[in-house]
Amino acid sequence: MAEPPDVYNHNLETVPRLYLTVRPGARYFASLRLLARVKEIDPNAFTKSGLIVGLGESREEIMQ
């Protein structure tokens, strides 16, 4: 973060229940922690993430 980007993006891709199926090499809460860590380093940094929908998740899981 020495030269911060305009926006720091890290896609979650899906909800926790489907995470190991969609992203077998990653962990949902590690991804959340990465985004939180960026904010710890620079509280003014813009962060964003994305989800793929239509993989069998419920509306409640998306809203969570």
SSE series:
EHHEH
Query: Structural class from helices and strands?
Result: mainly alpha
**Bulk shape:** elongated
Mean pLDDT: 92
Strand order of the largest sheet: 1-2
Q: Give the termini separation.
A: 29 Å
Characterize the biggest β-sheet: 2 strands, parallel
Q: Helical residue percent?
A: 25-40%
Flag low-confidence runs: none
Work out the helix count: 3
Can you offer a commentary on this structure?
The chain is mainly α and 64 residues long. The protein contains three helices and two strands. A two-stranded parallel ribbon has the order 1-2. The chain starts with 7 loop residues before the first strand and ends with a helix. The relative contact order is 0.29. The model has no long low-confidence stretch (mean pLDDT 92).
Summarize the structure in short.
The protein is mainly alpha-helical and 64 residues long. The chain has three helices and two strands. Helix content is 36%, strand content 6%.
Helix and strand topology:
Layout: E1 8-9, H1 19-22, H2 28-41, E2 47-48, H3 59-63
Features:
single chain, 64 residues, mainly alpha, two-stranded parallel sheet, 36% helix, 6% strand, elongated
